[in-house]
Specification:
2 domains, alpha/beta, two-stranded antiparallel sheet, globular, 13 helices, TIM Barrel, Enolase-like, domain 1, seven-stranded parallel beta sheet, single chain
Length: 361
C-alpha cells in the first residue's frame, strides 16, 4: 500500500512524505475478513525491518506456516512464529488479523477480547522537525486549536533547546514531550537534562541508542521529567533489564515493535506493576492499524495519552469509511463493532493498493 501524508513528517531518521506499508488480509472459510497492518517502513531506519523484508518473511514463512496449522488461531501462530528470530512487525500484522477474526466470530469488539474497558482513549499529537522554530510554533498552535492537549516534539542534536523554548514561550502551560529516536550520543545526558529541566519538559523519549541502557539510567537519576524507552524494549527480557537498571520511568509500547497485541499488553502489565506509566505509540498507521492501537489503549494498564491522533493528522484519504476524529478531551472513540469494528473503504483501498500477493492453503 501507499498513502500520501498530509504533510512531510521529519524525524532524526529522515523525512517521509508518502507512507509505503503492508496490509495482511486473512479470509476465513465463512467469508469473514481479518485485517492487520505491518508498520515496517520503506527503509530499515527505525528498526532492522523494512517493507521488503516483511513481505518476504510473510509470504515465505509466516503465512504458509499459518495455513498449515490444524487450528490457525493466535495462540497457535504465536508458537509457530517463535521458531523464527526477529521480524516482529511482520508477525504482529498476522496476529492482529487473527485477533480481528477471532473477535468477529465471538461477536465482540477487539477491545473486549484484550480486556479493554474505556469507551474513549486520550491521545496526543506528534510534531515532526520543522524548517524553523517559528514554523514549529504555528504547527503546534494549529493542533491545539484542533483540540489536542498533549504535544510531542521530535528533536535531534541541533534541533532541541531552541525550538522547544519557542514552543514553551508561546504556550507556558502546555504539556510537552520530546522524542529523539536514538539521535544523541550517550555522553549527552547532562546537556539534555539541563535544557529539558529548564523548559519544563514532561517526558524525554529514547534519546540514546537502543542498547545504551546505562546512559538512559544516568539520565533518569535526578531528572524532574520522565525518561521513556521505545526502541530499547522489544520483549520481556529487554524490559526486565531496563527496569532492573532503572533506565526508564515511562514506557512506549508499539504493537509492531514488540511482535503483536498480546505481547504488547503483557509488557504493559509488567510496566504497570513496576509503577512505570505506559502508553501506546504510533507508527503513522492507516485507519486499520490505528483501530488496533485504539482498542489496545482502552486496556487499564495504559495510563498516559497515546501517539494515536485522528486520521486527518496524517491522511486526507484514509482507508476507512468513517475515519477517526478527535473528540472531547483530546480523545478517540473505541470502535464498538465486532473485531476491529471499522468499515474498510473499498474505493480508498483500491486507490492505495500497489501490489497484491495471495497465499493459499
Amino acid at each position: 500500500m501507499e498513502l500520501p501524508l498530509v504533510e512531510p513528517f521529519e524525524t532524526s531518521f529522515g523525512v517521509e512524505d508518502r507512507r509505503r506499508f503492508l496490509l495482511v488480509r486473512l479470509e476465513a472459510r465463512d467469508g469473514r475478513l481479518g485485517w492487520g497492518e505491518c508498520v515496517a517502513t520503506r527503509e530499515p531506519l527505525y528498526s532492522s525491518e523494512s517493507v521488503a523484508t516483511s513481505e518476504w518473511v510473510l509470504s515465505r514463512y509466516f503465512l504458509p506456516g499459518l495455513l498449515r496449522l490444524p487450528r490457525p488461531d493466535p495462540a497457535a501462530f504465536e508458537q509457530l512464529a517463535r521458531r523464527f528470530r526477529g521480524h516482529h512487525m511482520a508477525r504482529a500484522a498476522v496476529e492482529a488479523a487473527l485477533l480481528d477474526l477471532e473477535a468477529q466470530r465471538r461477536g465482540r469488539p477487539l477491545s473486549a477480547s484484550i480486556g479493554g474497558r474505556r469507551r474513549r482513549v486520550e491521545v496526543g499529537v506528534s510534531v515532526g522537525i520543522q524548517s524553523s522554530p517559528e514554523r514549529l510554533v504555528r504547527r503546534v498552535g494549529r493542533y491545539l486549536d484542533t483540540g489536542y492537549r498533549r504535544v510531542k516534539l521530535k528533536v535531534r542534536p541541533g534541533w532541541d533547546a531552541r525550538p522547544v523554548a519557542a514552543v514553551r514561550r508561546a504556550y507556558p502551560d502546555l504539556e510537552i514531550w520530546v522524542d529523539a529516536n536514538q539521535a544523541y550520543r550517550p555522553t549527552a545526558a547532562e546537556r539534555i537534562r539541563t535544557w529539558a529541566s529548564r523548559l519544563g519538559v514532561a517526558q524525554v523519549e529514547q534519546p540514546f541508542p537502543e542498547r545504551a541502557i546505562r546512559a538512559h539510567a544516568d539520565l533518569t537519576r535526578g531528572a524532574p521529567f520522565r525518561v521513556c524507552l521505545d526502541e530499547s524494549v522489544v520483549d520481556r527480557p529487554s524490559l526486565d533489564d531496563a527496569l532492573a537498571a532503572r533506565a526508564l520511568t515511562s514506557l512506549n509500547v508499539k504493537v509492531g515493535r514488540v511482535g503483536g497485541p498480546r505481547t504488547a499488553r503483557g509488557l504493559a502489565r509488567r510496566g504497570d506493576r513496576a509503577g512505570v506509566p505506559v502508553w501506546v505509540g504510533g507508527m503513522l498507521e492507516s485507519g486499520i492499524g490505528r483501530a488496533l492501537n485504539v482498542h489496545l489503549a482502552s486496556a487499564p494498564e495504559f495510563s498516559l495519552p497515546g501517539d494515536l491522533s485522528a486520521s486527518d493528522r496524517y491522511y486526507h484519504d484514509d482507508l476507512l469509511e468513517r475515519p477517526f476524529t478527535l473528540g472531547p478531551g483530546s480523545t478517540l472513540e473505541v470502535p464498538r463493532g465486532p473485531g476491529l469494528g471499522v468499515e474498510i473503504s473499498e474505493r480508498s483501498l483500491r486507490r492505495a493498493t500497489r501490489r497484491v500477493r495471495t497465499v493459499r492453503p
